[in-house]
Amino acid sequence: MTAKDQQPLSPTSFVDRAALAIATLGPVGRLPLAPGTWGSALALVLAPWVFNPLPILWRLGVLAFILLVGTWAAARAEDILGEEDPGCVVVDELLGQWTAFAPFHLAGWSSSLTGGTLWELVILFGLFRLFDIVKPWPIRAVERRVPGGLGVMLDDLVAGLFAAAAYIPIRLFL
Question: I need a surface site. Which of 60, 131, 156, 164 has the fewest CB within 10 A?
Answer without folding.
Answer: 60
